[in-house]
Write a structure and sequence with these properties.
Number of strands: 22
Shape: globular
CATH architecture of the largest domain: 3-Layer(aba) Sandwich
Family: Belongs to the glycogen phosphorylase family.
Cofactor: pyridoxal 5'-phosphate
Strand content: 5-15%
Catalytic activity: [(1->4)-alpha-D-glucosyl](n) + phosphate = [(1->4)-alpha-D-glucosyl](n-1) + alpha-D-glucose 1-phosphate
Function: Allosteric enzyme that catalyzes the rate-limiting step in glycogen catabolism, the phosphorolytic cleavage of glycogen to produce glucose-1-phosphate, and plays a central role in maintaining cellular and organismal glucose homeostasis.
Distance between the termini: 44 Å
Structural class: alpha/beta
InterPro entries: Glycg_phsphrylas, Glyco_trans_35
């Protein structure tokens, strides 16, 4: 049935009132008629849902008007494809951005309900793992703030990554059941459901006009069903859509099997379909795990492209204008298969010639690279792709043929360069390089910090850069100041407003005005007092969750991020052991009290990362209970790190640990969140630390360690790290105590191999950076004892964070990559 034309001036309900009385009445109405509860017996989760529904209703008007405006103006749309969107809790974010926080608070007070209790009750949306997903969430909020018409596309995971708990110091993975009680923010769009195929075969088909085309005939089918969530910009400037796909079977039950008595087998199709959106990042150590991961990536990429093409044809009627009206940003290699899927849609389903389709595809797509680590640049066995996506493998071969021909004929590449740019890796089993596919199929490839972008040109994409020298560009990451300053630290936001006025709320660069007040003793004292309040809240969280008492007067030294050897939590905890030895050996010294806070998840199959978590917990157990330490050093690991936990830890941090091996961290965004909240960074010249050093000044950051060039040189020379250990008595003593079982008396050999690796190869330069790191920590102690200087440095960090706003990043994407003009420059 043909669709009715869209009428832009269709009647809509009157906008809802935003008074305290109106909100109070509506919250009660929602509680009664949507939740089905009498206020007398309503529990906190009932009030939470009722409040969300009342706030959501006021967002709907803006959401619909945003969509109408894009249709009316025919503005170009941005589509952000990401396997992760770590959006956290939404209620406070939405209320703050549309200016409802105080009104809702008063309305609830009149009903004898505390808003902060409800905010803490809302579950985190478990849609991501770490920086990649949080970056995507910040970008979505900034696109709404800058009034860019945008859709985020991802997967509606039933269980997210995992809920991390500790069992005797070991990480235990449990389901993150965030959807157990529904999600009041989302809307199912059953009309936006697309069929996704897998397997089968490809047949040549001759059309009535004599044209020969390829037709993929999958033997496995399921449905991708859309669920939409509103993403509200600052001051409600625009409301964009996060569209998440849920996998559902075409036939939920095989009735013939059920009737024959095979009750489990009757649900086989449902189980196979629903497994695709069950868990974020299924372990890919097995062949079955690899296949499920690839199914996930194709599932959401195909559904998203079908949706994009459908919307474009509905409005414009032809596909020739795709690059003028559509920009698709690939967030890492996870959606790279979309390049081949777009070619299939254009060539096989819409009869377009190959050359024209390839031109349109490259005009539409752009690709953000987030890592130089080979294991994170995805590749898939050719045999797996041929079995699961046979037509896409044909298309990839055809794309590769065009690229290699161009490399040989135009660029005169030799055999080694041809092998380097090929989409097919021929070494150790033939595999499709998804980073290469994303590169050749995009008109723009960006890194996420200045250093990372230069290293891309020199390492992973060196020959592709020679072939297409105009494509690589830099877009340094950013964070949304609304969530990571204004919402998670309202006390600091109020203090800044009192001192320099409210203009920074709309233009974060205006924070520079704080520089003029950094030497003011009164402001320094007020700034420190806000920090102390936040530290008291974190101390309470540590006490409640771990039973460890810490003093808010201590220096809070924080490293919170995914557990990985290159991020060097191991360096941090070894230095803590060395400090522990020093405190016991020299009790007469004036030691700075420290609380070392760790948090982060290790991939389930990453043994060394899980062992590092166990080591942190073992070291903490010994140090925290040793009376000889006199409370001068505490080590804690907070389990189940997520956005909500970060919102408590980040404002409380005095020292931000950004200590990755130089050349291995693409950017980092945690470093920016800490900076915004007045923490001082100790770090290597890696990722966005390089730009932080430039922005904040050398006097307001503590830098240590080998440079990227020095790391590469030492690796090239295969230098034995044992010499560095022998030169450092403090390091050797710490390593010996860990390896010999001082912290693991129940299993003295537990850490022998982990520490032995530092003697044998030390790929991540833990031993060789140790003395420099220890010296930097002593510099931190000296700075802490000069409180006026420390407070001045902290104020300068907050004042100069403006460059690291995701608004700046998105403006650069819009202007340099997507071809969009920003209305509110």
């Amino acid at each position: 049935m043909p669709q009715k034309p869209i009428v832009y001036d269709a009647p809509t309900p009157e906008p809802r009132a935003v008074t305290v009385e109106a909100l109070q009445a509506e919250i009660l109405e929602k509680l009664t008629y949507s939740i089905g509860k009498d206020p007398i017996v309503a529990r906190r989760h009932d009030w939470l849902a009722a409040t969300i529904y009342a706030v959501r209703d006021r967002i709907m008007d803006r959401w619909m008007e945003s969509s109408r405006d894009t249709w009316r103006t025919s503005n170009k749309r941005v589509y952000y494809l990401s396997l992760e969107f770590l959006i956290g809790r939404l209620m406070r974010d939405a209320m703050s951005n549309v200016g409802l926080m105080d009104t809702v608070r008063e309305a609830l007070n009149n009903l004898n309900v505390e808003l902060d209790d409800l905010i803490d009750l809302e579950p985190d949306a478990a849609l991501g793992n770490g920086g990649l997903g949080r970056l995507a969430a910040c970008f979505m909020e900034s696109m709404s703030t800058l009034q860019i018409p945008a859709y985020g596309y991802g997967i509606r995971y039933a269980h997210g990554l995992f809920r991390q708990e500790m069992s005797e110091g070991w990480q235990v993975e449990l389901p993150e059941d965030w959807l157990a009680h529904g999600n009041p923010w989302e809307f199912e769009r059953r009309e936006s459901a697309y069929e996704i195929g897998f397997g089968g075969h490809v047949e040549p088909v001759t059309d009535p006009d004599g044209t020969l085309r390829q037709e993929w005939r999958p033997n496995d089918h399921l449905l991708a069903v859309a669920y939409d969530t509103p993403i509200v910009g600052w001051r409600g400037a625009r409301v964009n859509t996060l569209r998440l796909w849920s996998a559902q079977p075409i036939d939920p039950i095989l009735l013939d099997k059920f009737n024959s008595g095979d009750h489990i087998g009757a649900l086989e199709e449902s189980s196979r379909a629903e497994a695709i959106t069950r868990v974020l990042y299924p372990a890919d150590a097995t062949v079955a795990g690899q296949e499920l991961r690839l199914r996930q990536e194709f599932f959401f990429s195909s559904a998203s492209l079908q949706d994009i093409v459908r919307r474009h044809l509905q409005q414009y009627g032809d596909l020739g204008s795709l690059p003028d009206k559509v920009a698709v940003q690939l967030n890492d290699t996870h959606p790279a298969i979309a390049i081949a899927e777009m070619m299939r849609i254009l060539v096989d389903l819409n009869g377009m010639r190959w050359a024209e389709a390839w031109k349109l595809t490259r005009g539409v797509f752009s690709y953000t690279n987030h890592t130089l680590l080979p294991e994170a640049l995805e590749s898939w066995p050719v045999a797996l792709l041929e079995r699961l996506l046979p037509r896409h493998m044909q298309i990839i071969y055809a794309i590769n043929a065009d690229v290699l021909t161009e490399a040989r004929q135009r660029a005169k590449f030799d055999d080694q360069q041809i092998a380097n740019v090929s989409l097919i890796d021929e070494h150790g089993g033939r595999r499709v390089r998804m980073g290469q596919l994303a590169f050749v199929g995009s008109h723009s490839i960006n890194g996420v910090s200045a250093l990372h972008t230069e290293l891309m040109k020199q390492t992973v994409f060196a020959d592709l850069h020679k072939l297409y020298p105009e494509r690589i560009n830099n877009k340094t990451n950013g964070i949304t100041p609304r969530r990571w300053l204004m919402q998670c630290n309202p006390g600091l936001t109020r203090l800044i407003t009192e001192r320099i006025g409210p203009d920074f709320l709309d233009d974060i660069d205006k924070l520079r005005g704080l520089d003029a007040h950094a030497d003011d003793p009164t402001f320094q004292e007020q700034f420190a007092r806000v920090k102390t309040v936040k530290k008291a809240r974190l101390a309470k969280l540590i006490k409640d969750r771990l039973g460890v008492t810490v003093s808010e007067g201590a220096l809070f030294d924080v490293q919170i991020k995914r557990i990985h050897e290159y991020k060097r939590q191991l360096l941090n905890i070894i230095q803590a052991v060395a400090a522990y030895d020093e405190i016991r050996a020299h009790p007469e010294k004036d030691w700075v009290p420290r609380v070392k806070v760790f948090a982060g998840k290790a991939a389930p199959s990453y043994w060394n990362a899980k062992l590092i978590i166990k080591l942190i917990n073992d070291v903490g157990k010994v140090i925290n209970n040793d009376p000889a330490v006199r409370g001068l050093l505490k080590v804690v690991f907070l389990p189940n790190y997520n956005v909500s936990v970060a919102e408590i830890i980040v404002p409380a941090a005095d020292l931000s640990e950004q200590i990755s091996t130089a050349g291995m961290e693409a950017s980092g965004t945690g470093n920016m969140k800490f900076m915004a909240n007045g923490a001082i960074t100790i770090g290597t010249m890696d990722g966005a630390n390089v730009e932080m050093h430039k922005e904040v000044g050398a006097d307001n950051i503590v830098i240590f360690g080998l440079s990227t060039e020095q790391v590469a040189e030492k690796r090239a020379k295969s230098e034995v790290p044992r010499a560095a250990i022998d030169r450092s008595p403090r390091l050797k003593e710490a390593l010996d105590s860990i390896a010999s079982g001082v912290f693991s008396p129940d299993d003295p050999n537990r850490y022998r191999d982990l520490i032995g690796g530092l003697y044998d190869h030390d790929w991540f330069m833990v031993a060789r950076d140790f003395d420099s790191y220890s010296a930097a920590q002593r510099q931190v102690d000296a700075l802490w004892l000069d409180r006026a200087r420390w407070n001045r440095m902290a104020i300068h960090n907050t004042a100069r964070v403006g460059f690291f706003s995701s608004d700046r990043t998105i403006r650069q994407y819009a202007e340099d990559i997507w071809g969009l003009a920003i209305a509110n420059q």
